[in-house]
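Rotation project, supervised by the postdoc (A.L.). Task for the rotation student: set up a whole-complex structure prediction and record inputs and outputs verbatim in this book. Inputs entered:
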Amino acid sequence: MKTVTCCDKGRRRFLKTTALGALAGLAGSQLDTQLAFAADPAYSGDVLVLLSLRGGFDGLSAVVPAGDPAYYAARPTIGVPKAQLIGGGTFFGLHPALAPLLPHWTAGSLAAVHAVGQPAPNRSHFSAMEELERAAPGTSVRTGWLSRMLGSFGAHDPFDAIAMGTARPARVLAGPVPHLSLTSIDGLALTGDDATKPVAATMAALYRDAPPALAQTAGQLTGALERGRELRAAGYTPANGAAYPDTELGAALRDVARLIKADAGLMTATVDSGDWDMHENVGIAAPGRRMHDQLAKLAAALAAFATDLGADGLRRVTVITISEFGRRVTQNGSAGLDHGYGNAMFVLGGGVRGGRVYGTWPGLGAAQLRDGDLAVTTDYRAVIGEILRARCGVGDLSTVFPGVAASSLGLVTAR
Amino acid sequence: MTVFEQTLHRRTAIGGAAAAGAAAVLATGTPARADSTFHTTVEPGVEFVDDLDLDPAAGLLPADPLLHLLRRATYGPSPASIAEIRRLGADAWLDRQLNPASIADPVADQLLARLPLSGLSIAEIRAKVAAGQLKQYDWTPMWQLSFAAPARAIWSERQLFEVMVDFWANHLNVTCPFGDVWDSRTDYDRTVLRKHALGTFADLLKSSARHPAMLTYLDNRFSTRLAPNENYGRELLELHTVGLEYTESDVKDAAKLLTGLTVDNATGAYRYDAANHVAGPVRILGFRHDNATTTGGESAALAFLDYLALHPSTARRIVTKLCVRFVADEPPAGLVTELVKVYLDHRSAIVPVLRALFTSAEFAASVGAKTRTPLEDLAATVRVLGYGPPPSGTKTFESLYWMARNAGQAPMYWGPPNGYPDVAAAWASPSGLLVRWNFHLSIAAGYWPADLVKPADLLTGMIGARPATYGALIDATAERLLGVRLGPDQTAALAAFYGKTPASQLKSNDPAVGWLYPYLMTMLLNSPNFALR
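Outputs recorded:
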């Protein structure tokens, strides 16, 4: 009897198929061998959560170079005043809307890296995002870097990598490694499938003798549906009084935390946060203003995620924020910011040496700018590479980021 | 009355001894076929039957060559198209499809009339902006073109033409919707892709190279004499024509030669700007040109495009991609070689290549070698059900578009310049499959979109009178939707879904012939049989 499985024996256990007992005869081989929630023994690194800030995040509003006089000169109405900055830095300060994250900054689990970006300026959203996720400029590589990282560990289970909050394939996960795009865990369900209408179990039987490629994908799906049922049956209450905001990002991070705590073998998750393309009315640093409220929403979701995981849970999780490009240093005629280049990244996790801003500050003087934009002194891939090395156990970066050496900023401790 | 004729009962009871035997045979070192051609010598007068046990796809699809042609050359067999191809025969049907102008298309025409902005020219869009009927940078025309795509794929009679428009839209991809081509993407569809889809590749390529949409999408409009932008020059070589056979020096010279092909910012129209052309000799692959004057830059660039279109490596790339679309993910080498010759002999004319492809032995032998992509699955679902478009409105087209988008293949929405992948491995995603299984039920049962025109009674509309047993119900519905019956194990599994066996009597008030009938339709659409093309 040929059975379709999507994982190694180390990640399986026997399930009691009660509701589906009637079908045990026809689909038993599928159902008896569903997957256990146990970490993949081949991977002992951090769960890497990649948070993509879509539209061009303004790192200069989030991590303000208050010690650089050119900053205030360039942004007369939208610069964040020194008096309002938080985080206690001497040169840099955080936007006050990031207050929910201040405890993590102070406790050292949150850091920033500034003047990071892609190796060459690219001010097209579409093409910059594509390059950001392909992360192999000047090559014919068409896969996403996260897929290449997973491939280096031989990841092969759909629950190894989840694009959370979207049903669409994530470009950064494009490649041969299977992954799941999920609008939500509760959405991992086959319409109409229940104890009286066992569609999934019937499908498992229909695919039993199918060509291997079709059978494999169908087997992965029926396995994932089973885990979705288990996760939904278990329900979920965030821990430590964590209160996720009622936003798409809040819901997505809540589901990521849920998977991490269920020990579902998650290695990496991608999450999106949109609406950062602020060409007009960025606003002052006050509630009700555009940048303030966007940052507040971002901070609330991330803070809830960290609180929910708790110090112990956070010890094996690293969150990285990336964006396709930063914004122009000088505000435009609409009190907004056009597409720029250099940017800030946040890194959040138990292994982070936080509470400070890393990187080499190029300065905002006219001579230091790159076509009016913050210059890039650190390749974003080098920063991620350092994290992959220290926290995820990636020994050889060359397949993930061809031709890029890891940075040695020291922003994370080795596991 | 079933629309599929039951041509062959070629089921083998895999799962028992036959499968074990096949596995044993394979394990003893029978090489897997490298391509889908049969290397079997058949003696004259001996009826040749291939060994089904060696081919996992065997028996999953009807072997009827007419149905095979429909599955490949269209967005999927519909009851009407099956009747038509049976009436015309393969050759006449193909002739007609290769001459789309000869095909009246009243239904699609009527549907497109509901999306009046989907074919606007750049000038028309800008005139509407000037008249206050559209906003500057308005995406409405691009959205209408997007929503037209599923309508055309499902209900146009010019099926092969629509498939080829999609093929070229991917080969010469310009993402839609995409803000920078807000005023030019609909024009690109009409005056480049549709105009040349069954013409010559040389004309198609030159048309795309002088279109604002392509020049914008690949940045050539911003390429200047002082700072040539290499993006278009590189993709022109790597993706549109010869493939990865160029040197960096080829790219630099191509970028130089293409400077001046730009867009007039005032009108949005194509313009050749001699002042921004880099003159001077170029060497690109085997192409040499003095490129002596800036005013002669455009004609030098066109000569280069002609050279590329007729380059043997381009011929090989184009026909290989056509074979991947229509024959197999790993095309038979012999067929590719043969088609390269046809392409070059006919100076890049597409129709002779397609005719040779669809009439080749390799094509005939490739039954079951292709898997449906999400978009093909979506269109094939509506087509095989035979559901019609609603009498008015565009909401249904929008719903179908978003279904394709959720499944990862909204028409024209691919971001990178290489177009959507066309091989099964690229689409083997469990979450993508979940979206597909869910839309099968949603469409078949009429949950969403809710206003497709369906038979008043689904069971009668699908298979006619109610059969006597569950087995007969499953057989009739499988024949109607898949063209084959399923094996005994699969039939038993479907009966078990209803808590029955195939021999169980089917009563008039059983849910299986009432509210649960769409579930049977859906599970058949979810089957590996329907997943194959």
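Student's summary: DSSP finds eleven helices and eleven strands in chain A.
Supervisor addendum: The first helix of chain A runs from residue 24 to 31.
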